[in-house]
TrEMBL record:
Keywords: Oxidoreductase. The lineage of its organism: Bacteria, Bacillati, Actinomycetota, Actinomycetes, Pseudonocardiales. It comes from Prauserella alba. Residues 9-216 form the Flavodoxin-like fold domain. Belongs to the NAD(P)H dehydrogenase (quinone) family. This is NAD(P)H-dependent oxidoreductase. It holds the Pfam family Flavodoxin_2. The keyword Cell cycle does not apply.
Length: 263
């Protein structure tokens, strides 16, 4: 499929910032505006405005709290029976509708805020986010396959630190490595193509000029949401991994860490 010809995409924008007047809040507003102006449909899940509950518990699955909770088994039973909490089921419908998912958040302690991590924990349940199998072969569908295959994922993050500190020799680690759990462990695991992230640095010190440049950069990135090249992750079933899910000898010589898993 020639993605450059796609028009009218459905975009789910997951926004996780407690202050609507922040740079992050402005980017969420401007991003939605840019997408709508380009003919796309947008649904925003503003987690703080929704007062999203980030904590997995027995109530999510209609589970008897007097019995021991096995989260994976309980979530699978509730998912198959259509008995998940209404808030979780609503997010599933949004994800099914979407062609692309934007995760937008401030980078706190080298990760997303707890409310967004809780959205991932509660929404990507067994049978939807993981534990998805091919009914014909019984093969597990993940890392390039899965319930969300064919969709695209983009991280938009505001960062207080300077850009150099997230570079190849930066003290915080390279941004690609910091975001690897989201790009590879969430997007790619569930089947979504992960796009290179958009990071806005120095967010805590942003002036009007910085904000204008951030909005312009966001608009450029969103213009390529359908056609930009995704991160070149290896697929689990593409022949690069053995039956123990270990990269085969001879591949990625001279590389280590997350970079091993790029083609």
């Amino acid at each position: 499929m020639d993605r450059s010809r796609l028009v009218g995409m459905n975009v789910l924008w997951i926004h996780a910032h407690p202050e609507p007047r922040s740079l992050g809040g402005m980017l969420a507003t401007e991003g939605r505006r840019a997408l709508v102006e380009s003919g796309h449909a947008v649904i925003v899940s503003d987690l703080y405005a929704m007062r999203w509950n980030p904590v997995v518990d027995a109530a999510d699955f209609g589970h008897d709290p007097a019995r021991r909770l096995h989260v994976g088994a309980a979530s699978r039973r509730a998912y198959d029976a259509g008995e998940l909490g209404a808030d979780i089921a609503a997010e599933h419908e949004k994800l099914r509708w979407a062609d692309a998912v934007v995760l937008q958040f401030p980078l706190w302690w080298l990760g997303p805020p707890a409310i967004l991590k809780g959205w991932l924990d509660r929404v990507l349940v067994h049978g939807f986010g993981f534990g998805v199998t091919d009914p014909a072969t019984g093969r597990v569908r993940r890392y390039g396959d899965g319930e969300l295959v064919g969709k695209r994922g983009l991280v938009v993050t505001t960062i207080g630190a300077r850009e150099s500190s997230f570079g190849p020799r930066g003290i915080h680690g390279h941004l690609d490595d910091v975001l690897f759990p989201l790009h590879h462990g969430v997007f790619w695991y569930t089947g979504m193509e992960a796009l290179p992230p958009l990071a806005v640095y120095g967010a805590d010190r942003a002036d009007e000029g910085t904000a204008d440049r951030a909005v312009a950069g966001l608009r450029r990135r969103l213009a390529g949401l359908a056609c930009d090249e995704p991160l070149p992750f290896r697929s689990e079933h593409g022949g690069d991994y053995d039956t123990d899910l270990v990269l085969r000898p001879g591949l990625a010589r001279g590389r280590s860490g997350p970079a091993l898993h790029y083609r």
